[in-house]
């Protein structure tokens, strides 16, 4: 195996070196080889892709759809995205000029940040939040400004936002993610309007990651793009709604002026998504809008079970209104940090969960449980958590 030459060992992008590996994946890998462990770590649906969606991918291969597509994505898919957003969320985008099909929501986040950021720019991130936001900002030479929401039931308040913008008036954007990973919180239309009133007319983009929008258990999801379309970059995709994580199809919807610039970053980075995945996604949005319904019912049953079990065991838990996570607090009497608790639970209790500090400083003292797995696994994990907790008391 080759070893990197000393002459080039120190040559490279210095911004990448301080950034560690993805903390969620790193912890999941660390505990993966513990014999008999039940892992509630990853946010990946345990459902299969709907059959009609798979057949659309197969047909595209059989039809020799194997060449480069338009860089923004195939026309049929962009039209399907536009129609879906208009029908479900009452937000309206021209499929020709205001939609980009990306390699998952992950690329959509990176492309969006790359489009607006210059070195040293500050980006606001309400935390706890998906760690990739902070990592991408740092990788691009920016400064993530974490806004601790843990004292406000994990929701950003207008007062807190006003306070942060007074301190950092030159912030370039704020990243909103709801339903949230890791907390599962959902904002109401009234709450979104209150935040929009603070943001409106300021030189501040809203990058709204709504990848879990089809997994809302109470009131219907309201997109930030409906409230403040002229300043919002909407990010979504098919990974969670149709269990298509491996297909890697996400998208950006935004005003034309933003998309004109973002499409340059996108095309220079990835050229275009793959044909089979795009045709599958088009089928999902044209003929599979009811596909998430049964998944959502199953997730809701799992959520109710996990929340009750957690609260009964003394792990204070806010009942989430969306996504497929709960974010319980670690009892202070245990005297353990998030990492210490989760590592101990994995090794001694044979249950895998994610330490809360993987989601920013505001996540310390909590842990994330994913219920995107079978009820059998969840019930066994709760049984083991009960036994583990009894030993700590």
UniProtKB/TrEMBL annotation:
Superkingdom of source: Bacteria
A single MF term (Gene Ontology): transaminase activity
EC number(s) per entry: 2.6.1.-
Limits of the Aminotransferase class I/classII large domain: 37-385
Enzyme class: transferase
Family: Belongs to the class-I pyridoxal-phosphate-dependent aminotransferase family.
Annotated protein name in UniProt: Aminotransferase
């Amino acid at each position: 195996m080759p070893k990197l030459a000393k002459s080039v060992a120190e040559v490279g992008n210095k911004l990448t070196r301080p950034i560690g590996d993805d903390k969620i994946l790193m912890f999941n890998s660390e505990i993966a080889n513990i014999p008999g462990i039940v892992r509630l770590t990853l946010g990946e649906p345990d459902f299969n892709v709907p059959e009609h969606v798979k057949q659309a991918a197969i047909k595209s291969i059989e039809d020799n759809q194997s060449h480069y597509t338009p860089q923004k994505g195939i026309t049929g898919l962009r039209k399907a995205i536009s129609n879906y957003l208009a029908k479900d969320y009452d937000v309206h985008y021209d499929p020709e000029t205001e939609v980009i099909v990306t390699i998952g929501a992950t690329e959509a986040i990176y492309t969006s940040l790359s489009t607006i950021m210059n070195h040293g720019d500050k980006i606001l991130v309400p935390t706890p939040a998906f760690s990739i936001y902070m990592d991408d900002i740092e990788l691009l030479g920016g400064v993530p400004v974490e806004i601790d929401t843990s004292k406000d039931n994990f929701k950003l308040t207008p007062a807190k936002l006003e306070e942060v913008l007074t301190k950092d008036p030159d912030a370039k954007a704020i990243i909103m993610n709801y339903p949230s990973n890791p907390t599962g919180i959902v904002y109401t239309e009234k709450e979104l309007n209150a935040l929009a009133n603070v943001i409106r007319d300021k030189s501040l983009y809203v990058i709204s990651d709504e990848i879990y929008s089809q997994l809302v258990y109470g009131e219907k999801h309201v997109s930030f793009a409906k409230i403040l379309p002229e300043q919002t970059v909407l990010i979504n995709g098919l990974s969670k709604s149709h269990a298509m994580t491996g297909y890697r199809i996400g998208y950006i919807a935004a005003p034309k002026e933003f998309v004109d610039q973002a499409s340059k970053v996108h095309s220079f980075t990835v050229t275009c998504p793959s044909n089979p995945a795009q045709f599958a996604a088009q089928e999902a949005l044209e003929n599979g809008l009811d596909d998430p319904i049964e998944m959502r019912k199953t997730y809701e049953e799992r959520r109710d079970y996990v929340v009750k079990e957690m609260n009964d065991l003394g792990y204070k838990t806010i009942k989430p209104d969306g996504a497929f996570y709960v974010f319980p607090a670690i009892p202070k009497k245990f005297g353990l940090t998030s990492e210490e608790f989760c590592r101990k639970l994995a090794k001694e209790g044979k249950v895998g969960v994610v330490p809360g500090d993987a989601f920013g400083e505001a996540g310390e003292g909590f842990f994330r449980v994913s219920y995107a797995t079978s009820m059998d696994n969840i019930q066994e994990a709760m049984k083991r958590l009960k036994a583990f907790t009894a030993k700590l008391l």
